[in-house]
Amino acid sequence: MSFIFTPRQAKAVTFRLQPDVKSIERIPFPPNRRPPKSRLKMSVILFEKYDGDQVTDSMLQEASKLFGENYGVWDKEAARVMGGFAREGSRVKMSPARLRDQCLPQGAANTYVRVIVDNHLAGNAFACRWMYHNRSVCWITQLVVHREYRERGLAAGLLNALKQDTDEIYGLVSSHAAACLAAAKSLGDPLNANQLRFIRDHAEGIMKASPVTYVTNAKLRGSLFDTSQDHNGMISSVDTGFFVDHTEPLEALAWVQENTDWPLGKLLDGHEFLLIMEAKRRARSRSRSAIVSSPSST
Q1: Is 245 in contact with 72 (CB distance < 8 Å)?
Q2: In CA terms, which of 34, 128, 178, 257 is 20 to 30 Å from 144?
Q3: d(CA 131, CA 84)
Q4: CA dihedral defined by 8, 14, 19, 23, rounded to 10 degrees?
Q5: Would you tell me the crossing angle of helices 247-259 and 177-187 to the nearest 10 degrees?
Q6: Which residue in 211, 136, 128 sits closest to 172, CA to CA?
Q7: 3-state per-residue secondary structure call for the chain
């Protein structure tokens, strides 16, 4: 299904079998704590939503290119830990085949959403769903927005397009604090320390039930899960062994910490933030029983 938005016009809905999508070239800008909004005009914005079995090889090729050009670069430890392919400073890439394997696991309930701006692929998101204690979990397996279209509300639009009325729990791991904030705002309640209790009590069970390999294999890290040792400021994180350079994420985190009460702690090399939350109350089914967290404080 496609949703078209044009300035000063009412929302319209149309259907397309296979839109002709082009990727845009990267336009560099000086590093900044929070990148300025792009001046690119957005005349027509098209959100497209597909079930996992509708995602074609061509779509994954475009998604692979978007990821490789906009996700990040390997850090200095990556080659030593992960192998020679992860050369310091080289861009992190993911082949279409690996995208399908990691983000659209076979036999699972998968969703793919992308946003086309003036016929250019500007961002996309993958999600996978499974059950935990008779409640539906929607896990954001990937969220990427082209750097020239960031700070324009497209991430929130992608997340809103992924939502389903049956979703009761949302989760993601990300090195970007801004992605966590966008997810909390779009899918759950505003990010706050009260949500940590739910993460603490249910993260392990939710992640072990996942059909997504990297989610199942991620190791819980931070004071939220283990108070017996020093975690260097980590509160809710996972060790993914994915050594992406954190220069840009740390700049974003610094901005977030200056402007919000950031509850997930510090970001260390090879780790990502872990966010798990219940869906917004108005979107949850009243007929289902709630998962009750332990009354003890975090």
Answers
A1: yes
A2: 257
A3: 38
A4: 30
A5: 50
A6: 128
A7: CEEEECCCCCCEEECCCCCCCEECCCCCCCCCCCCCCCCCCCCCEEEEEEEHHHCCHHHHHHHHHHHHHHCCEECCCHHHHHCCCCCCCCECCCCHHHHHHHHCCCCCEEEEEEEEECCEEEEEEEEEEEEECCEEEEEEEEEEECHHHCCCCHHHHHHHHHCCCCCCEEEEEECCHHHHHHHHHHHCCCCCHHHHHHHHHHHHHHHHCCCCHHHHHCEEECCCCCCCCCCCCECCEEECCCCECCHHHHHHHHHHHHHCCCCCECCCCCEEEEEEEECCHHHCCCCCCCCCCCCCCC
Token digits of residue 203 = 């993260």
CA distance 58 to 47: 17
Residue 248, CA atoms < 13 Å, CB-side half-sphere: 19
Nearest to 158 by CA among 48, 59, 56, 79: 48
Positive or negative: CA dihedral 282, 191, 213, 144: positive
Please name which of 184, 172, 160, 163 lies closest in space to residue 261, comparing C-alpha atoms: 184
For residue 73, the one-letter residue type is: V
Q: Can you give the pLDDT at residue 280?
A: 85
Q: At a CB cut-off of 8 Å and minimum separation 6, what does 95 contact?
A: 64
Confidence band for 190, pLDDT divided at 50, 70 and 90:
confident
pTM value surpassing 0.85: no
Q: How high is the pLDDT of residue 298?
A: 39
Q: How confident is residue 5, by pLDDT bands cut at 50, 70 and 90?
A: low
Q: Kind of pairing, strands 169-174 and 271-278? A: antiparallel
